[in-house]
Design a protein that fits this description.
Blueprint lengths: L17 H13 L7 H14 L3 E5 L2 H11 L7 E5 L4 H9 L3 E5 L10 H7 L4 E7 L8 H11 L3 E4 L7 E2 L2 E2 L6 E5 L12 E5 L2 H10 L25 H12 L1 H21 L6 E2 L6 E2 L5 E4 L9 H11 L5 E2 L21 H5 L4 E4 L7 H18 L1
Parallel strand pairs: 2-3, 2-4, 4-5, 5-8
Antiparallel strand pairs: 1-9, 6-7, 6-11, 8-9, 10-12, 12-14, 13-14
């Protein structure tokens, strides 16, 4: 093996070419004054065309997009919002900031996304929304969740932060709910450095969020420095949007590369004789964007130490592997009496046996083979 094989292998990093540098440089040099929104407008137009939705508002983060969308839906004190226990806090934080309560339910063992049966069972008169998070680019059962939402008159929100490129029955993730939100953080399949976007097909919701995103100034307001309501400052910068425009030119290539990396990992695990309990996978009529390769290496167990042992072992060999998301109900902001909800079986039993593996766009076959080979060594020692 070459020496480069043994250099540190990060879990993720963006794919940046001369095109991104060219666009960002142009925005930095010329995107001021009357041109200060040129790339933002272009990015919104091109992203909504890519997604197949009517409206888009580029934001400073996915969290900001969720915050404004939830605010526009009227979510507030005493309300409840149902979401999966397995998540990053970025989905729950806007709920809390609005004074509402996140209601955590378990995930499905194969997709690691929201369990529709538990969603149905958790609905109360206080339920104001359901948040469907497409975890690691896997897809929620949107047909079931949308049917539940329609039956109870509850909006379904799509947190598609990790799901650029994921397709559900011919529709792109983020385009099916009352609104969707995406992240363009530097770790994601496509990036603007930091950033996000709010998308919807609802004209009223769009106008509300557009107003909220810019200090509460309504579109068409001609009076200068005149807010129409108390809003936020969640706008994306022109330079960030320029980077995003360049990434959109390459979006199909970026997603295809992620899927190819996932396929290579699956081939390598098979070649090394490692039987996976779970891995990102397409379902009938669905195509995952494969943002983050996650593997479940053993039967789910709350007592297992396998994941943490493997992370330490891989790190000692220069490989940066990430843990599966901890259940939010176990974390300091949300823990209740130090014990997990009895219904959150897989949210608690999957993390101890799961790993996120390096899957940046430029990872090569030798590096993937090295990662899998070391996982096998670790399994022989700790499994």
């Amino acid at each position: 093996m070459s020496d480069t094989t043994f250099r540190k292998i990060p879990y993720t990093k963006p794919s940046i070419t001369e095109l991104e540098v060219q666009y960002a440089t142009d925005a930095a040099a010329n995107g001021w004054g009357e041109h200060c929104y040129d790339y933002i407008i272009r990015f919104e137009e091109e992203f909504k065309a890519h997604l197949g939705v009517k409206y888009a508002v580029a934001t400073s983060s996915c969290t900001g997009a969720l915050h404004m969308g939830m605010h526009a839906l009227g979510i507030g004190p005493e309300d409840e919002v149902i979401m999966a226990d397995t998540n990053w806090i970025a989905t729950a934080a806007p709920i809390v900031h609005l004074g509402a309560k996140p209601v955590f339910v378990d995930i499905l063992p194969d997709t690691w996304c929201l369990d529709p049966e538990q969603v149905e069972a958790s609905i109360t008169p206080k339920t104001k929304a359901i948040v469907a998070v497409h975890l690691y680019g896997n897809l929620c059962d949107m047909n079931a969740l949308l049917a539940i939402g329609e039956h109870h008159g509850i909006p379904v929100i799509e947190d598609a932060a990790e799901a650029v490129g994921s397709i559900y029955y011919g529709k792109r993730a983020g385009s099916m709910g009352n609104f969707g939100a995406f992240s363009f953080h530097g770790t994601k399949t496509m990036t603007t450095g930091e950033g996000g976007i709010f998308v919807t097909n609802n004209a009223t919701l769009y106008e509300q969020v557009l107003c909220l995103s810019n200090h509460g100034r309504a579109r068409g307001q001609t009076k200068q420095f005149w807010p129409d309501t108390v809003g936020f400052k969640y706008k994306m910068s022109n330079v960030q949007a320029a980077l995003g425009c360049a990434q959109l030119v390459r979006i199909d290539t970026l997603v295809q590369r992620k899927r190819a990396i996932l396929d290579k990992y699956i081939d390598q695990f098979c070649s090394h004789g490692i039987k996976l309990w779970g891995v990102n996978a397409d379902k009938p009529n669905c195509s995952v964007g494969a943002w983050m390769v996650n593997v479940v290496l053993d039967q789910p167990s709350k007592q297992s130490m396998l994941s943490s042992l493997l992370q330490d072992f891989l790190r000692s060999h220069g490989i940066d592997a990430r843990p599966f998301f901890h259940p939010l109900s176990s974390t300091p902001p949300f823990v209740s009496n130090g014990s997990p909800p009895s219904e959150s079986i897989f949210s608690y039993s999957l993390p101890p046996v799961s790993l996120n593996l390096p899957c940046f766009h430029d990872i090569n076959d030798d590096q993937i083979e090295r990662v899998v080979s070391l996982v096998k060594q670790g399994l022989m020692s700790f499994g």
